Amino acid sequence: MKLTPLENQLIQKHLHGLADTPEAARMKQYIQHGRVSTYDHVISVARLSLLINHRLHLGACDRELVRGAFLHDFYLYDWHKNGYAGRLHGLHHPAAALKNASMRYSLTPCESNIIESHMWPLTLFHIPRCRAAAIVCLADKICSSFEVLARTNSFSC
Length: 157
Hints:
By secondary structure, the protein is mainly alpha-helical. The protein has helices at residues 5-15, 22-27, 38-55, 62-71, 89-104, 109-117, 131-150, and strands spanning 31-33, 36-37.
């Protein structure tokens, strides 16, 4: 299933001011899964999250959903280097992403919950508490699995 032209426009609209920053450019340098950059990963998660929300008529706020999906891995370091992989990156990066995003952007409570809970159930006490957070949590698992197992550049929505 593909996004419609209108849905693609919605993503561009909601990512304006986020996806075109120096920090976003840094995300293009870091590998997330396989050969996929962190930037490409968060774009894929944003696209799939919007697709799930619209096709299943779940009613989550598109703006919060897309922004939270883009910022969910906004930790801004290469977790493969300098001992990050050995320091349980999967458990700690949501807090780093939330801290970085909170310092740079005004986040809604839903956007904050998306970022801090996207690794649930691994992060046991950070539970998705809004529809958008549950959708992003699911989309992140799907995209991550596809990226690791298929070893492709990104999930194509």
